[in-house]
Design brief:
CATH topology of the domain at 2-40 and 443-581: Multidrug efflux transporter AcrB transmembrane fold
Number of helices: 21
Strand content: 5-15%
InterPro entries: SecD, SecD/SecF_arch_bac, SecD_1st, SecD_SecF_C, SecD_SecF_C_bact, SecDF_P1_head
Number of strands: 15
Largest sheet: 6 strands, antiparallel
Transmembrane segments: 422-442, 449-473, 479-500, 528-547, 553-580
Domain SecDF P1 head subdomain: 260-403
Function: Part of the Sec protein translocase complex. Interacts with the SecYEG preprotein conducting channel. SecDF uses the proton motive force (PMF) to complete protein translocation after the ATP-dependent function of SecA.
Keywords: Cell membrane, Membrane, Protein transport, Translocation, Transmembrane, Transmembrane helix, Transport
CATH superfamily of the domain at 2-40 and 443-581: Multidrug efflux transporter AcrB transmembrane domain
């Protein structure tokens, strides 16, 4: 029997309801733990957000082409999408300005992905200053003050005549033999001068230092003046952490973007960010293939970058080995300077918009140059390391822009449409929903319960999916998306109508009602699947080719199409099978929507013995009723009576043929 395919139709319904309950439970948990909200996030047109206007610049003053701007817009869009922000609007304004509008309250990391829109470079480290000269001077002065205070508090021996006094002491009338001399404070300029005066001639020269190698790590790229400036630079001050465009062919001074005070002197760029093929964040795996909790970024270069990184890794490994050799006790007293310089030069820095986002050397396990273009950058363990690795992967993947940008303005913008338009859209959807219910009740009577229940389940499921996507991937609902949700009402109703009309066709062909429901499903599901597949393909194509609000419409249309397939398979069809167990539907009550007159049933066996009389009356022909009326007339000719009887006989035969019953 065809009905054996669904022995327990309620199982699918219960399973679907269980999935919805679990989904709403997860959403409630996320809301209780402040990780998300019960309602989906809203897009710019309904909530407002942050608008940033970027002005393009170049380091060499060359002309900016439209192709450069279009490519930059695409990269910025990839950056924003990778950060999990949906429904962002990125467009050109005026000549070459780029306007980036982000909905809601974006995180600082997301804003940095937009603000820091310069080309990303890999640069060699030449010098590192952990703290500024001002900080060193402050520490030295504090230490001297403490020592002086201790010396003053400790009694000292009386000076003998053979001890020579300084000019200052001799000139001070109040000086006593036991007085402690005053220590002159150290100035930041003195600290910076001592660090920068490489040749110890007492002056800070702007001439290049003697070459130490024939590569971008050579001291010949820098000057004593550059060392002095780097030592004096305060990399904790906010004004020094805004970033700027830098010439990739020259040595530069760069602050650590984390604001920890570290300043770098970096050589010319070895590799550009455009030579990165892929950067993926993830945990490190052991030799046996098991995962660890050590987060990092796996970087793959293209052919050009692979060749360049092979040379860079060879050079850095040489500096690392030289630093280890210089640090050995047998190296002699002159090893300290070499050790300091070599250990610093064994690192490379990743620079974005003039700020160093990280610096790194090679682990001891790396003993030979990396020639396959694949390198892993270790970050650390824990949740913070995971966030940092994800951010670094996004910066490496989408940090390569053909031009640099400066932030012209950054401001909060209000919603262009607001909650009133959202409310009007929801009211329009509710009105359409009620009109559909009225139509279904008029057309399909009691059977409209199945359609309405399917619509309710589809609406609940769609809301759950949208809310979870808003939590998991940052999706935001726009007014265009609301339009896609309203259209989904028609998609669900259309699926029901296709199914019911196939059931009606099967009943007309003489099948029993139960068999018609099952056989009609076999034919209807192919049509439904094909129809929804066409909608889904159209949604995917529209989403891929469109931008902005049109993408929101395509996204919600695709989501509701998938939800419709789930509802029609897991709810509508099982519910149709289940309601036939009730006499109201199974025996075709005239208000059920499955009554024989409504379906045009031709078989008495379709409804069972309880409905024989109703079917008898339903299929009674018009010709037979006319014959009985003529037979009841009081006067009629015999020939006329014979004709009436003849008509009655003919009509009775027609009825017998229609029913398939003999009188």
């Amino acid at each position: 029997m065809p009905t054996k395919k669904i022995k327990r139709p309620g199982t699918r319904i219960l399973l679907l309801l269980l999935v919805l309950a679990v989904g709403f439970g997860a959403l409630a948990f996320g809301s209780a733990t402040k990780r998300t909200a019960i309602t989906p996030g809203l897009a710019l047109d309904l909530e407002g957000g942050t608008q940033i206007i970027l002005t393009p610049t170049t380091t060499d003053g060359s002309e900016i082409s439209d192709e450069d701007v279009n490519q930059a817009i695409e990269v910025i869009r990839q950056r924003v999408d990778a950060s999990g922000v949906a429904e962002a609007q990125i467009s050109r304004q005026g000549g070459h300005n780029i306007v980036v509008a982000l909905p809601g309250t974006p995180s600082e990391a997301t804003l940095d992905l937009v603000r820091k829109a310069a080309v990303l470079y890999f640069r060699p480290v030449i010098r590192v200053f952990q703290v500024s000269a001002a900080r060193i001077a402050e520490q030295q002065n504090n230490l001297a003050a403490r020592q002086q205070a201790q010396a003053t508090a400790t009694p000292t021996e009386t000076a003998t005549p053979t001890e020579a006094a300084t000019p200052t002491e001799a000139a001070t009338p109040s000086a006593s033999p036991s007085a402690t001399p005053t220590i002159r404070p150290t100035t930041p300029e003195e600290v910076a001068t001592r660090a920068a005066d490489v040749n110890r001639d007492g002056t800070i020269s702007e001439d290049p230092l003697p070459a130490t190698s024939d590569d971008n790590s050579s001291d010949a790229w820098i000057t004593e003046k550059m060392i002095y400036d780097a030592a004096m630079l305060d990399c904790t001050a906010p004004e020094n952490l805004t970033g700027e465009a830098q010439d990739p062919t020259k040595a530069v001074i760069s602050c650590d973007k984390r604001g920890n005070g570290t300043a770098y002197i970096l050589g010319p760029a070895d590799i550009a960010g455009t030579d990165i093929d892929k950067a993926v964040s993830g945990t490190e795996t052991t030799e046996q293939g098991g995962p660890t909790n050590n987060w990092g970024v796996s970087v793959e270069f293209n052919a050009k970058g692979t060749e360049q990184f092979a040379e860079v890794s060879k050079r850095l490994l040489g500096f690392r080995d030289a630093a280890k050799t210089a640090a050995r006790p047998t190296a002699g007293p002159n090893a300290a300077p070499a050790r300091t310089t070599a250990s610093q030069k064994a690192q490379f820095a990743i620079v974005l918009d003039g700020l160093t986002i990280m610096s790194s050397g090679f682990r001891d396990s790396v003993t030979s140059p990396i020639t396959d273009g694949r390198v892993r950058i270790d970050i650390g363990k824990g949740a913070q390391a995971r966030t940092q690795s994800n951010t670094l992967a996004n910066q490496l993947s989408f940090g390569a822009l053909p031009i640099n940008f400066t932030v012209q303005s950054e401001q909060q913008i209000s919603a262009t449409l607001g909650t009133e338009q959202l409310r009007n859209g929801l009211i329009a959807g509710l009105i359409g929903f009620l009109l559909i219910i009225v139509y279904l009740a008029w057309q399909y009577r009691g059977l409209s319960v199945v359609a309405v229940a399917s619509l309710v389940i589809a609406a609940v499921g769609t809301y759950l999916v949208i809310a979870l996507l808003s939590w998991l991937i940052g999706y935001r609902l726009s007014l265009a998306g609301v339009a896609g949700l309203i259209i989904s009402i028609g998609i669900t109703v259309d699926s029901f109508i296709i199914y019911f009309e196939r059931v009606r066709d099967e009943v007309r062909n003489g099948r029993t009602l139960i068999a018609a429901v099952d056989e009609g499903w076999k034919h209807a599901r192919r049509t439904i699947v094909v129809s929804d597949a066409v909608n889904l393909v159209a949604s995917v194509v529209l989403y891929a080719l469109a931008v902005g609000g049109v993408q929101g419409f395509a996204f919600t249309l695709g989501v509701t199409t998938v939800v419709d397939l789930a509802v029609i398979f897991a709810f509508t069809h099982p519910l149709m099978v289940w309601i036939l167990r009730f006499r109201f539907f199974g025996e075709g009550h005239r208000l059920s929507g499955l009554d024989p007159e409504h379906l045009g049933a031709r078989s008495l066996a379709a409804y069972g013995k309880g409905r024989d009389a109703l079917i008898e009356g339903a299929v009674d022909s018009l010709a037979r009723r006319k014959a009985r009326a003529r037979r009841g007339q009081s006067d009629g000719a015999a020939a006329g009576d014979d004709a009436i009887e003849g008509d009655d006989a003919v009509d009775s035969q027609a009825h017998d043929g229609k029913d398939g019953e003999s009188k």
